[in-house]
Amino acid sequence: MAFALILGILLVPGIQAASAQPVTVAKVPFSFIAQGKVLPAGEYLISMRQNDPTTMRIVSADGKAGTYLSVLVVSHEKACCEATLVFKRVGAGYFLSAVNIPGQSARELVVPRGAAAAALAMLAAAQPANQG
């Protein structure tokens, strides 16, 4: 059974990436899967790739984890109010499925076929064994 979890995130307009793209800061309290890669809980910086509306970058604040995200614009209406990350829970894993940032079009992630199953297997392998 899958369900969606929407996590409000903090928009920090003062932070700029090297490419001068605005950066959004998100605190995610659980491990999650983005673009087939398992990312640990923590603070993340999210930005659009310069001159490419189909690619976003998510990287941990410490720079140790991250990936590029292939995204589709799903609404040309600009998001207002607050930034959100949308996660879908599948089995024991949370999958990043959409990113909404104020002033930008809503975007959903493109997940390659087979990436979800592979990421769930990696997540299961990374979990500590249950102590009985």
Description:
The structure is a single chain. The chain has 132 residues and is mainly β. It has one domain (2-123). Helix content is 9%, strand content 60%. Strand 3 (32-34) and strand 4 (37-39) form a beta hairpin.
Strand content: over 45%
Shape: globular
Number of helices: 1
Query: From the alpha-carbon coordinates, what is the Rg to the nearest angstrom?
Result: 15 Å
Proportion in helices? under 10%
* Ends apart, CA distance between termini: 26 Å
Jot down its keywords.
single chain, mainly beta, two-stranded antiparallel ribbon, 10 strands, globular
Layout of strands and helices, then pairs:
Elements: E1 2-16, E2 22-28, E3 32-34, E4 37-39, E5 42-49, E6 52-60, E7 66-78, E8 83-90, E9 93-100, E10 105-109, H1 115-126
Antiparallel strand pairs: 1-2, 1-8, 2-5, 3-4, 5-6, 6-7, 7-10, 8-9, 9-10
Short structural description:
With 132 residues, the protein is mainly β. The protein has one domain. The protein has one helix spanning 115-126, and strands at 2-16, 22-28, 32-34, 37-39, 42-49, 52-60, 66-78, 83-90, 93-100, 105-109.
